[in-house]
TrEMBL record, chains A, B, C:
It catalyses: K(+)(in) = K(+)(out). Homotrimer; conformation seems to be controled by binding to diacylglycerol (DAG). Intracellular monovalent cation channel required for maintenance of rapid intracellular calcium release. Acts as a potassium counter-ion channel that functions in synchronization with calcium release from intracellular stores. Opened by a change of voltage within the sarcoplasmic reticulum lumen. This is Trimeric intracellular cation channel type A. Residues 277-286 have a biased composition (Basic and acidic residues). The chain crosses the membrane at residues 20-39, 51-73, 93-118. It is a multi-pass membrane protein. It comes from Aldrovandia affinis. InterPro entries: TRIC_channel. Residues 265-276 have a biased composition (Low complexity). The lineage of its organism: Eukaryota, Metazoa, Chordata, Craniata, Vertebrata. It is found in: Nucleus membrane; Sarcoplasmic reticulum membrane. One of its GO terms (molecular function) is identical protein binding. Residues 263-295 are annotated as: Disordered.
């Protein structure tokens, strides 16, 4: 790669990492998040029975990462809610997804090509959030590496990390599984992303932040769009993880035909097979069918 | 209404909204709250087995609104506990309600005429709390309308919003229902009250705060006393809500003979009927019988 | 006791209460805590399946008291994690306990004589934590007696108070019991210790802090080491408690042959017998056998 190419790449990355997320990308984030909420079994009934509970769940899906990060850093959990425009926008999206006449809005955004674009845009926002979370924690704790990783992780994973309590709000309780025990791809990627951004922030990774944002976004968008398009939930980390976990933690090696690639795939998983398929990973087709039936 | 009448009303409202709540009204609040704790199935056994757990539950019933509001605003959840006199008073009430010889204190305060007065006084305190919560949030977030509503709501509803976790402390776990999914009258009224006080605080409602406090208190006292006297748990909002929810959220219209008027009454409620009757709404007669049996 | 003896005792107490806990005593604390985690049924499988969940649980066992106290006082729950050396040390202990080849490390530290020394050292740290918690709360709330007691209690009990949620992280849910409903010896002792240190801090107990630390440490070490050596879980408070609870709270008197000495031992406990044996109190032999089988 010649000098000019590097310069250009740097400039593009610079431009890309400064690009405003509000409102276009944020709206995409809200749409995809609330779409996943609608896929959850029982959420349509809750939206009919108790709009307040449904609205709170929608807000958790959209702003869970801010709420959790604020809790982790001992700040006001409601802090993000002073951005009235963001909340109103998310509320509008929630209303359209759940109550639009003829279910028109839902049908439009759940249409695969549209959805792929939105899913890609969501990952752009996710990467930014991870970087912002690490930066925020670095500001508060200059040498708190663990705090940086945890904050970045929480900012990237959002509602997934509190899914047990979000489900409880809808009257569902599944204690046998949670997002940390059975990490989905976005949660896992957030963890690795938070590690990378922490290394960058503490100058262990000799790369500019804007370039890292650019590269990580590229990776996330590609992976997530591919996975959504192929209705797949196999993680690109599975092979490496399987080996590392085998060497470091004595986990059994994942057999090739195994279908559920957990973090350190289990040989004799105690949990039943179904809860292993978590929120973001659930086969899209099945979910859509369920959601349609629920209408 | 002539000018003089309005002036007088304003003065009365002014006086009323400045009236000190401690100790008389606060004691009434503690008594009614801990009475409701005693009505909870199993709470008498817990008070025998583990006085510490029972005391913590009693404190949650009395000060849950302060604890929750402090959590929501990122402040010290124990902050209110530096008011030693309030805590000692509530502890005394707890001791008398649960351990008084011959159950004398309980019998006195559960005597209907006495209870009606106490219930009325509790509602006076509740309204004040909502107003204070909205004001507090307004102070911290000048344009955070959502934060104001949520803080006021939480201050008005108190322990009800964390009933799942309060029950867990007593070894009871009922995940299929919660106060947001099946709102009781006081919770719902707190939400509407918080909305009104937020509108007033942001000058959208052209009415003085003291007058609003006065009117809302009047409404709450009347409703709650009537409901307690008639052992009823039908909400005065039911009809309006039913129509609004039908139009806005496509909920089924509540049939006239329906007995459980949820927020947006369900046509085919997934939850079984019994948990729908929440804390404050449970038929008083049944509860008293249960509590007596538990003695 | 002559003047010289008292002077000497005061000096020894002074020296003892100033002694640094890091790293020797802290390591002992981490080892014993993570040992107890390994005794928990299912924790070995979790460590194989999801090292991240296992690591988080280990951190909760080691630093739960700091996290809880920070939450209670409205500070950053992750605050303690900026002590990178402490976290790295605890992580090393966690790795050695769970993944050491041939299970060598576990076998060494679970060897009774070694374990008794470590258990004794853990109690030294616990007492210090209680004193520090009360002092911290006293600094923030000068007259907040209740806040002091609660903070000291939480600092002494640590993860036990959030055991329900720690278990949930491992996919286990046992709502019918919790540490407040069925207090184990260390939790109970932490409560009494927090009371004593609060009395000392507010000058109601005419004794120097260093002497109180010294005496309380002596009591804790003796009790806990004896209980661990004898595989016993009977509390030294049982007799006094039984009488006090009988007089104050009307609890049934514990019969002499009763095996489970709860706080205010129940006559007709609603909870089944097994969950009554809590974390620290479980018969060590049984737990070791279970842990071995799980290997």
């Amino acid at each position: 790669m010649d000098v000019l190419g590097v310069l250009n790449l740097g400039e593009i990355a610079q431009y890309f990492s400064k690009m405003a997320m509000f409102p276009v990308f944020d709206v995409a984030y809200y749409i995809v998040s609330i779409l996943y909420l609608k896929y959850e079994p029982g959420s349509v009934e809750v939206s009919r029975r108790s709009p307040v509970a449904s609205w709170i769940c929608a807000m958790l899906y959209c702003f869970g990462s801010y709420i959790l990060a604020d809790i982790m850093l001992g700040e006001c959990p409601l802090d993000y809610f002073h951005n009235n425009s963001h909340i109103l926008l998310a509320t509008a999206v929630w209303y359209l997804v759940f109550y639009c006449p003829l279910n028109l809005f839902y049908k439009c955004v759940a249409f695969l090509p549209v959805k792929l674009v939105l899913v890609g845009m969501k990952e752009v926002v996710r990467t930014r959030k991870i970087a912002a979370g690490v930066h925020h924690a670095h500001h508060a704790y200059h040498h708190g590496w663990f705090i940086m990783v945890i904050t970045g992780y929480v900012k990237g994973s959002g509602v997934a990390l509190m899914s047990n309590f979000e489900q409880l709000l809808r009257g569902v309780w599944r204690p046998e599984s949670n997002e940390i025990l059975n990490m989905s791809f976005p949660t896992k990627a957030s963890l690795y992303g938070a590690l990378l951004f922490t290394l960058q922030e503490t100058h262990w990774l000799p790369i500019s932040k804007s370039l890292l944002i650019c590269l990580f976004t590229l990776f996330m968008v590609t992976s997530k769009v591919t996975m959504t398009a192929r209705h797949s939930h196999s993680s690109p980390f599975a092979l490496v993880e399987s080996w590392v976990c085998h060497v470091l933690f004595g986990s059994a090696l994942a057999s090739e035909d195994s279908h559920d690639h957990h973090h350190c795939a289990p040989a004799a998983s105690a949990a039943p097979a179904s809860p292993a398929k978590t929120r973001d990973e659930l086969n899209e087709g099945t979910r859509k069918r369920k959601a349609k039936k629920a209408e």
